[in-house]
Amino acid sequence: MEYNFLEIEKKWQSFWAANKTFEVKADSSKPKYYVLDMFPYPSGAGLHVGHPLGYIASDIYSRYKRLKGFNVLHPMGYDAFGLPAEQYAIQTGQHPAKTTENNINRYREQLDRIGFSFDWSREVRTCEPGYYKWTQWAFLEMFNHYYNNDTCKAEPIAELVAKFENEGNAAINAACGDVEKFTAQEWKSFDEKKQSDILMQYRIAYQGETAVNWCAKLGTVLANDEVKEGLSVRGGYPVEQKMMKQWQLRVSAYAERLLVDLDELQWTDSLKDMQKNWIGKSQGAEMVFKVGDYDMTIFTTRADTVFGVTFMVLAPESEWVDKLTTPEQREAVDAYLKEAKKKTERERMTETRKVTGVFTGSYAINPLTGDKVPVWISEYVLAGYGTGAIMAVPAHDSRDYAFAKQFNLPIIPLIEGCDVSQESFDAKEGIMCNSGFLNGMSVKEAIPAAIDYVEKHGIGRRKINYRLRDAIFSRQRYWGEPFPIYYKDGIATPIPLEELPLQLPEVDKFLPTETGEPPLARAENWTYKGYPIETSTMPGFAGSSAYYLRYMDPQNDNALVSSEADGYWRNVDLYIGGTEHATGHLIYSRFWNKFLFDLGYVVEKEPFKKLINQGMIQGRSNFVYRIKNTNTFVSYGLKDQYDTTEIHVDVNIVNNDRLDIEAFRNWMPDYATAEFVLENGEYICGYAVEKMSKSMFNVVNPDNICNSYGADTLRLYEMFLGPLEQSKPWDTKGIDGVNRFLKRLWKMFFDAEGNLAVVDAEPSAAELKALHKLIKKVGDDIESFSFNTSVSAFMIAMNELQDLKSRNRQILESVIILLSPFAPHITEELWSLLGHKESISFASFPEYVEAYTIENTFEYPVSFNGKMRFKLELSKSLSPKEVEEAVRANENTEKYLAGKPIKKVIVVPSKIINIVC
RNA sequence: GCUCGGAUGGUGGAAUAGGUAGACACGCAGGACUUAAAAUCCUGUGGGCAGAAAUGCCCGUACGGGUUCGAUUCCCGUUCCGAGCACCA
């Protein structure tokens, strides 16, 4: 009987679907386990072999947990809103809903072939109204709440209004924008518009003027994590800074909790570090400098260096710029601002070392020394961080130093013995000098002492700043969730909850209007009760921020998730996905969850307990070498004898770096008449490891692998390739090894005639030892996500059992249970051939019995003075004294010792004996 | 520039409470079966030296030091590669 994987895999995939094998219910009699993959954006290109890596790992873990008796929730869905579908729609006129659906269907076909144990009855798609109703709902909840810094949680905006009516806002400690103080009387005297504007400053989802990343080519603003090196992540188009009024989420209010709660998560340190850096907490002080009649506040982490301030610097966008520019300097300042504005973010970054700036004409008074210092404007100060203004200490900050050198400003060293003639001294160490009452202190003492001093004298206070900015939440695009907001006389007003979802309207074109408004402005009757509805849509991360909650209760029309479902499933126990979401999705999702936690909708304050980042699978590209100006190709080993051009060749027509010459001639018309210079009768290709992409002709499609080797082989091979979290190249040539393993496993169950040949008998000690070694290894490996070494362990165990000619039923049944998470189809088939009616998924993971694996004799390698010499066989573990006697008694070792005395005996239990003589 | 992570045969990779480095697999070489090929099975395979052979010796985990009876593993320094952040005061 042959191992017919095509038939077997099809059979069991249908079986699982028909029997709903992997559908789960909230079942409180069993412990729950929630395994989640980062759901894919269904792109037009389909899946390549790199995509399923994480899904295979999570599937192995899910199937393992089921065998261990857990009620496992393992769902899948699609992150279906997004730019590529819309860009494609603009080019082709096809509706993004249509292309998205086609892509989803293609994805589903590909996923189904790999044999995942997803509960597809819980599938979600972020672009479906039934789903995005809850995205809109969460947005409105954020709109209707503010962040109370005293209680450290989100609270209803209605409660805030009540406080305003009673006592004004003087005593309110909330995360908010710039708001003037007002009394209860004043609040009541404000008109509706003014009150609305004030409340907007407090809302968690709010509309505000801010510097945004504007991408002209995409026609939309982007969040910080959607921009890399001044270019948009999607498309790679230039991005510029622009002041715009946008919807934002007050993520910054949660900065401290997002930071602190990282401690309890089982995430890798590197990912936690990335989030910590992104949140960027820094402790320092705010200090007030008088400039004429104004009090200008700055933020510093080096309060100790205030005696070395020789100038001040404002960000070009700072509101102080206008106030402090003197008439004489007005022209120069305007010219500078105009230049600065013209630059894209990209240009600013590449010119990072170029020092630019302009003097405002005003002077500030150093509050400690009383010195008069000039106030400058420069791009190196950021408007969005701190107060947008700094005190410059050129002796101890390299950026201030560069500026001072450029514009010839004084530099005062503050640390004994430091040399600031060539560069600044940035380290926080040394003894203070030139610093009044701080003289003689170490820097570590001086920082708090300086802050204490300014606090006592009312010139400043302790302050913590975060780099984490509020998330820009609107996009001027079509293919996203519409905002459930309309403008009643210019006042942003929510559409009532019971009227959600607000469905995405049809438009004639997916482009901005002639007047530059977003595509939704093209929709007919895009109004609510006659008032205009918001025309921006929500960004990609909106729909992916709470999808893990929706899987718990996907059909619920009355709540995002019922409290019963949430109370049972709680949060994700294991989350697997790429590291590229470290500062985007994984921050937003944590924020979103904490907000819902504050409101009592969810019971856990963190969404993802354990997180594994699977590495990327890279492509292994092949090259041919064309002799310049000819159509002749020279083999890899001979290419240096010619002047050649390296050309990518499709890896599918290369086998083991040998080019299939006929296939190459047929590959592209240009090569039909190609000539070859061969070595040993073959054309050898060069290779390189690169990103898997169409343009490099190194894409390997999982469907092809399933057709020629089967899904079980694909699954095993992807795991066998290397550690899960490491990036590694795909190379199809190694796949024969795991395929051979499965074929040999299959053969173990049958005799030469093809009949099932399993023996019912008591297993031998040797068989039990091989099995229990495997149980231990596989169990430990799965728990630690070392799937590559467990695949090896299966191969080793099978070799051992083959040597023993084992056909023992008990042993083989246990082996296939162990293997079933990795290779579910072949093991289901064998399980059923062995007479089991139920799916192998309902079997139990075999118990490990240590007694079977214990050795009766110990073979100790014996080393003398560290050099390995002999092996010594002992019947049991011995003490050093007993070992010394055994060594003396042994012919070999005594020969080496030749009567010399033994100084010391070191015994490393069950590993090695070292004799020092 | 700052913060992390990594470097082991021709290839992917095993092995860390420090204890026989190179498991397992690919590739390669040789052999069996076959008219032949595929498939399958067996043997060998880090480098060097000696030997007819069994075998023995030396060198080897990016490089240079250190701790230790003993280091791929721990510590210090260097080089190279990868990822993230990027004027965050």
Helix content: 25-40%
Number of helices: 29
Regions with pLDDT < 50 over 5+ consecutive residues?
none
- Count the strands? 36
Keywords:
917 residues, alpha+beta, 4-stranded parallel β-sheet, globular, RNA-binding
Write the layout of secondary structure elements.
Blueprint: H1 5-18, E1 32-37, H2 52-67, E2 71-73, H3 83-92, H4 96-113, H5 129-143, E3 145-148, E4 153-156, H6 157-167, E5 174-175, H7 184-189, H8 192-200, E6 205-215, E7 220-222, E8 227-228, E9 231-232, E10 240-249, H9 255-260, H10 269-279, E11 281-291, E12 294-300, E13 311-314, H11 320-324, H12 330-342, H13 345-350, E14 358-365, E15 372-377, E16 389-392, H14 398-407, H15 443-456, E17 460-466, E18 471-472, E19 485-488, E20 491-494, E21 527-528, E22 531-532, H16 540-544, H17 547-550, H18 563-569, E23 572-577, H19 585-598, E24 608-613, E25 617-627, E26 632-634, E27 644-649, E28 654-655, E29 658-659, H20 661-667, E30 675-677, E31 686-690, H21 702-708, H22 711-720, E32 728-729, H23 735-748, H24 765-783, H25 787-803, H26 809-819, H27 824-833, E33 858-864, E34 867-874, H28 880-889, H29 891-897, E35 904-908, E36 912-916
Parallel strand pairs: 1-2, 1-23, 13-15, 23-24, 25-32, 26-30, 33-36
Antiparallel strand pairs: 3-4, 3-5, 6-7, 6-10, 8-9, 10-18, 11-12, 11-17, 13-16, 14-15, 19-20, 21-22, 25-26, 25-27, 25-31, 28-29, 33-34, 35-36
The structure holds one RNA strand of 89 nucleotides.
Structure commentary:
Helix 3 crosses helix 4, helix 22 crosses helix 23 and helix 24 packs parallel to helix 26. The protein is α+β, with helices and mostly antiparallel strands and 917 residues long. Helix content is 33%, strand content 20%. The protein is built from 29 helices and 36 strands. The chain starts with a helix and ends with a strand. It binds one RNA strand of 89 nucleotides through helix 10, strand 12, strand 16, helix 14 and strand 32.
